Every structure is written in structure tokens, then in C-alpha cells.
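[job 4471] stage=fold_predict status=RUNNING
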Amino acid sequence: MLFHLRSRAAHELWLVIVDASASTRRHRALTDAKGLLAQLFDDAYRQRARMALLTVSGQVPTWQVQGLKAAKGLAGWLEQLGAGGGTPLLAALVEAGNWLALRRKRYPAEQQRLLVITDGRLKDIAGLPLLECPGLLVDIERGPIRLGRSQALAAGLQLDYRHIDD
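[job 4471] inference complete, writing C-alpha cells
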């Protein structure tokens, strides 16, 4: 006799990569991104999604949360988020890709989603990793002179693209 466990819907994991480099301070880009993140954290909490959060600033990307249930505590982290330093976005994307691949092996039924928030101000986008994860890149580049690199970055990562003003 076979017993079947009642299966619930597969858990969702939302991986968010936030570019908090010095260039995101200009023209309220990071401030507006914080509003977007606050809404996202609230949605994740209500939908009981798991969160992973990787910040990009300084020399190396930094994990804030890795696969935990979305919690109200993320609001406190968000208030403290400041911008500064370089943009190790490529390193963050490689690290995220490796982490997602390991997580897929461990939780094959989990639905993964990716959100990248960046102004796209990278010197080079050669060597982008294959993330094998559906997602969205939100372009927060603002100001009179826009380099417009985020669209190419989104295409290279096979992510949907939107500008934060849309």
C-alpha cells in the first residue's frame, strides 16, 4: 500500500541582489529602491516566501539573509542600508548562481525567483553567469546622463527588464 503525503504548494525562494554602490546614492536611486524593497519584503512575508538577500557594495558582495522565511526584521535592515564603495555586481551574480544551483539540488521542488536592483554602472559585463532562474532586473539609474547598461545586463542574464520609474 502506498501512502501519499498531502502536498502543499512548493515553497518559493526570492533571491534579491541589491546594488548599494556609491553611484546609487545619486538622484535618490537607492532611496526609491528601498521603497520597492519594503513592498517586496511585505509581499514575501504575506506569501510565506523564503528570502535570500545579497548586497553589493565595497569590495565583495555580502549575504544578509540566506533562505530564511521572510520576516518583519528585514525592515530594520532596510532602514540601515546605505550606499558606498565599488560595485562587485559580477562577483555577486556568480556567487548567487552557485548558491542557487546548490539550493536547487537540496530543494528540487522549490520555485526560485530573482530580483536584481542596480543602476547598471559596471565597467564590463563580460563573463555573466547562467543563473537558470526566472527574474527581473529593476534599473534604478537616474539623472541627466544615463549609461543605459542595465538593459544589456538584463538581456545577458536572461531576466525581464523594468526601469523603477515605470
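[job 4471] summary: The longest helix spans residues 29-46.
[job 4471] exit 0
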